[in-house]
Amino acid sequence: MCTGVPSLSRISDPMETPSAMASSWNYLPFEFLFCLLLLLQSSVVSSASPSQDSKSASRNFGSEHGAAAHEVHCSRERSRAASKIIAEYLTPFLEKERYQLSENCRLHHENNLYRDQEEHKMHVDLNEWKCGYCGKRFYEEKYLDMHFDNRHYEMLNVSHVKCFADLCGALHCDAMMDFKPQKSKCNPAAAARNKHLCESLADNCFPGNQGPTAIRLHEFFLRQFCDAHTCKGGRKPFSRGRRKRRSVFYLVISILVLMLLPVLYLFIYLYQRGIRRGSQELRRISRTTQKKKPS
């Protein structure tokens, strides 16, 4: 509050002399302006402080949100194992039947969280891995995975894609990852849970109303993956085997072999023909020498 402003009671005091009253009215405009400036300053400070608090709060929220965004609870290693199993033990049979998985099927490659990053991996040499996004090179694959997590996190489609690692129980990822079998007893509850997940994948990806091809593949999937989820011995995963897809290298080698086979046969033919001619010439020479001998 402004204490220097004269009060009304003092100004209206009838006992006060006219000179004192004149001096009081002379100081009144200056004190009034001073108080008005103090009020304006306090109002500006009070209005600015909430905006600063909101900015600091938004920065804290942004940093916390950015830190939480990198927390993806999905194993990259197990997702890679599940993707490899699908590529080697299921996809070749789908291609043979010319069957396309629906995107609603959890086995579809578009539902792999790390699909885009895995496609941008380049295995240049035995101890050399290259990032397909920025071109950086690494000695081991795990360092490239760490690079993806730190530098190319935005390439993960975390909006609606599910984790392939969640399918490992049904697809026997431990067998693909070369884990040593534990000597502990089989857990019937875990086996039943994995078998139920496996059968639900078969029902979802190969529904019976899609025709005879889907029915055949449904039966194949049950034999290939689901039958091994039991505590009874004698049943192993991937019982139907795998079909390796023909690579470009294989095709090139086959073409070269087919081209070199006629050359090889021609060489063998000429070699055998030369041997026959040589033996015939030797016979002629021996006969002529025998005829020229004196009697």
From TrEMBL:
PANTHER family: C2H2-TYPE DOMAIN-CONTAINING PROTEIN, ZINC FINGER PROTEIN-RELATED. Residues 129-152 form the C2H2-type domain. The chain crosses the membrane at residues 248-271. This is C2H2-type domain-containing protein. Keywords: Membrane, Metal-binding, Signal, Transmembrane, Transmembrane helix, Zinc, Zinc-finger. One of its GO terms (molecular function) is zinc ion binding. InterPro entries: Znf_C2H2_type (IPR013087). Residues 1-47 form the signal peptide. It comes from the Eukaryota.
